[in-house]
Amino acid sequence: MLTKDLSGKRYKLGALSVMLAVVLSISACGSGGNNSASTNGGSTSESSSTTTEPAAPSSSDSTTTTETKLTAVTQVTNWFAEPEHGGQYAAVSKGFYKEAGLDMTLQSGGPGISSTQIVASGKAEFGMGSADEILLARQNGIPLVAIAAIFQKNPQGIMFHKGKYKDLSELNGKKVYVGSGSAYWEYLKKAYKLDSVQELKYTGSLANFVADPESATQIYVTSEPFTMQQQGVEVEYFLNYDLGYKQYGNILYTTEDYIKNHADIVKAYVEASIKGWMYYKDNTEEINKVMQEKNPDLKLESMAYGAKAQEPLIYGGDAEANGVGYMTPEIWESLQKQLVDIGMLKKADPISSVFTNDFLPAKS
């Protein structure tokens, strides 16, 4: 779950606390295997055309035409429209979902909105989240399955003032603004022996970080560094993935039940989404303007920075050889082991049920 303060900065709450809240709220709900396309009230959404498309006339003189109905589906993102969702909005804007037979509604995430909860309750077919959220959800009885990893490297990181630190262990004794209970932070504290760090609650504001040159703060590398650049504050950052917490980001997921009953729709959704991400790579300015209509608070300059910063995280790594969205069992198993080691997972279940590459398009 993400949340946002009035200044427009975003931050991520601890995945464990999110999962506990989800479990409580859906304890009376099913596994989300129906075909509902309803949305959560209060959030913005974008839909592809809801009209049906006539088929080409037959060779006869008959004026009768047949209509191909689009299948209505909903995907919940993990925040308001931003570059991290560029491929999804491109797929709507350019008609890729419609071409795949889908009437797609993109429902924005935001304060108080959990995509895992909405998908698990059957109010949306697809969601977007991080790898640790998928594992924690499954432990708590929510049978989510990752069907594509948009980010090969999750864009979460730790930012500090330029030149201050060369190793994360140097943060001992310093103030660090971070969401309590975050899985990645629990891992980093243990891995880097941060036993005397001054852990302070991250509120979304960077004012305290700016005022204290010895401090550090959690960030998305696609966002906060640009904010600091605009304020003339020189910063550097560690990417959590490079620190050893290797997890995928902006994972597209659905439920086991939905895959079982609607594999053709899942494949159409994934292929159209990946097509959108390939389009966004070369047409960011066009799609950023589309997203800004949905999220006017986010300036085009900031979106341009984010799109550039996330390129190697999306299109690099295993995606170079295997295509956008590709996942490996090694990454999933390593993350699962880390969550077990820090006590956030009780045990390591077979990873084969957690993710699948079966719906990804063949790499050309």
TrEMBL record:
<dbReference type="GO" id="GO:0016740">
    <property type="term" value="F:transferase activity"/>
</dbReference>
<feature type="domain" description="SsuA/THI5-like">
    <location>
        <begin position="83"/>
        <end position="286"/>
    </location>
</feature>
<keyword id="KW-0732">Signal</keyword>
<dbReference type="InterPro" id="IPR027939">
    <property type="entry name" value="NMT1/THI5"/>
</dbReference>
<dbReference type="InterPro" id="IPR015168">
    <property type="entry name" value="SsuA/THI5"/>
</dbReference>
<dbReference type="GO" id="GO:0009228">
    <property type="term" value="P:thiamine biosynthetic process"/>
</dbReference>
<feature type="signal peptide">
    <location>
        <begin position="1"/>
        <end position="30"/>
    </location>
</feature>
<keyword id="KW-0808">Transferase</keyword>
<feature type="region of interest" description="Disordered">
    <location>
        <begin position="32"/>
        <end position="68"/>
    </location>
</feature>
<protein>
    <submittedName>
        <fullName>Myristoyl transferase</fullName>
    </submittedName>
</protein>
<feature type="compositionally biased region" description="Low complexity">
    <location>
        <begin position="34"/>
        <end position="68"/>
    </location>
</feature>
<dbReference type="Pfam" id="PF09084">
    <property type="entry name" value="NMT1"/>
</dbReference>
